[in-house]
Design brief:
By secondary structure, the protein is an alpha+beta fold. It folds into 2 domains: about 80 residues, Beta-grasp domain (Ubiquitin-like (UB roll)), CATH 3.10.20; about 70 residues, [2Fe-2S]-binding domain (DNA polymerase, domain 1). It has 6 helices and 5 strands. The protein has a 5-stranded mixed β-sheet, with helices on one face. Helix 2 runs antiparallel to helix 5. The longest helix has 14 residues. The radius of gyration is 16 Å and the shape is globular. Bound molecules: FE2/S2 (inorganic) cluster (2 copies).
């Protein structure tokens, strides 16, 4: 199939790439741009582990075509830390034990960062709703909710 040229920003860097129209955003990120922090789970929109932010909103990159990101800004987990410095939310995931196997973690962090940007003081119910599209088989979710809730407090933002 004829390739399409697209331009997009990924983690603040501009890219111009040719993609097969059937290529998913997930494959573009992992296989062409080498950003393997985005997990491939079910590959069909069920588990949420492939979540990235497109124009600051969480999307499932396994069921979004790469060409649909044309002209947009994509954030992956590689774009959250500033150099060697983890974001406060990343630190809190570690400190609060919100990471076990880590498979869901990139998606959970991105969903949490996006939520806190839109709603700096979410309730626990709003946090639960925001992360509801990402499955975690390890933590029972409570520590993830704790970490996001704490990141929303003055102390968490320091
Ligand atoms: S890998 Fe995309 S939703 Fe499971
Ligand atoms: S920490 Fe293992 S799936 Fe969430």
């Amino acid at each position: 199939m004829k390739e399409i040229e697209i331009t997009l920003k990924v983690n603040g860097e501009d890219f111009r790439v040719e993609v097969d129209p059937r290529t998913s955003l997930l494959r573009l990120l992992r296989e062409r741009l080498g950003l393997t922090g985005t997990r491939q789970g079910c590959g069909r929109g069920d588990c949420g582990s492939c979540t990235v932010l497109v124009d600051d909103r969480p999307v499932l990159s396994c069921i979004m075509f790469a060409f649909q990101a044309d002209g947009k800004s994509v954030t992956t987990i590689e774009g959250v830390a500033k150099g060697d410095r983890l974001s406060r939310l990343q630190e809190l995931f570690v400190e609060r034990g919100a990471i076990q196997c880590g498979y869901c973690t990139p998606a959970m962090i991105l969903v949490g960062e996006s939520l806190l940007r839109r709603n700096p003081s979410p309730t626990r119910e709003e946090i639960r709703r925001a992360i509801s599209g990402v499955l975690c088989r390890c933590t029972g979710y409570e520590k993830i909710v704790d970490a996001i809730e704490e990141a929303s407090t003055e102390e968490g933002r320091r």
